[in-house]
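Record type: monomer structure entry
Structure origin: computed from sequence
Chain ID: A
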Amino acid sequence: MEPQLAGGVSFRYVESSALVAAGLEGDATAMRAIRGEGVRVVSALTLAETRRTFAVAVVRGRISHDQLRSRLAWLRRFERFCEIIDVSSSVLARVGRPFSVEPVRSLDAIHLATVETIEADPSLVAVVTRDRRVRENAVAMGYHVE
């Protein structure tokens, strides 16, 4: 049996939408959720999507180049405290099967498939997301959602 922390979960999967909300938009609720108890787990996709979103924010004039450097430094600090799961062939194979609540976009399916690679009872895993499709599927799969 997995160790359960005081907050009720052992693992905290941080999905891209929550990381972007915290890192780009300064969303305090998202920031608290990603800092919650449990081993932080992310997909390599989460980090790539977040970096991409930060870069696009510069091009669109939402943030300056100095703000980009600051946000990338923040992301590197966050990354040091995470277990990073690669987008592996087994994750991609899972993406091809139906999910509980369809339709699911491909990148969202990669996140959901990645969560399933965490070898723990779903009740011990929190999925931190701001995405409706990911949220609905994570709940249907038995995960906590924040």
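Annotation 1: The helical segments are 16-23, 28-34, 44-59, 65-80, 89-95, 106-116, 132-140.
Annotation 2: Residues 11-145 form a domain with the Rossmann fold fold (CATH 3.40.50.1010).
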